[in-house]
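Standup notes
- DV: blocked on the single-chain target, sequence here:
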Amino acid sequence: MSTEYIIPQHVAIIMDGNGRWAKRRGLPRTMGHAQGAKVVEQILEDADHMGVRYLTVYAFSTENWSRPDNEVKALMNLLRTYMKTSLVKCAKNNVCIRVIGERSMLDPDLQESITHLENETRNNTGIHFQIAINYGGRDEIARAARKAAMKAFDAAQAAGELSRSYFAQVLDECMSIEGLNAQLDTAGLPDPDLLIRTCGEERISNFLLWQIAYSELYFTDAAWPDFTKQELEKAIEAYNHRDRKYGGLKEEKA
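- DV (later): unblocked, structure below
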């Protein structure tokens, strides 16, 4: 990769194709997920070495519960294993981990492992690694709106002023773009510069709907278990050929 390339600060990935990768090899879908988990660890390391500061991956969506029970169980067990075994690696590589999504539906032991891993790595200053588990973009926005409304009510109550006009004023502040940003699962993180989706699909699939308003999108035919450092480099190369205007205009060079 050219040393002149700008490395995106935040890369988000929809890791698609584990099941299809396994099927093409006559393997059960769960084997594809196991291989995909190994690729996550390698890509995290590669992204870190390239200079990416934030990496967010879509591990399990709110819609994935509809998959066969054995597949859901296998995915949850993979997540359990990762949460329990990654602490040493995170300490060694200075990785800060955050899990985004509605975790109340997860089994208590998995919730406990997530909380422990987040607490133990929160002061690490290396790459920030976000794992989306039981995550849906619409669900996240709805939860953020509910939290913002409750914050407005609490503020009005604390001020001893529950009139309709005052509550409307504080609600307007809490429901502003800045106010809702502060209630998202990704609060405090920069929005993704680059969103990658693997295995030939060209959909967003309810991932980071708020955050990717101005992200560059990159789609590759490679299934996630086949995604390599070279594939990541190709995505970053494509990113460097995009003209990011954020809705505005750039002056043309004379």
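- Follow-up: Residues 101 and 135 are 4 Å apart (CA to CA).
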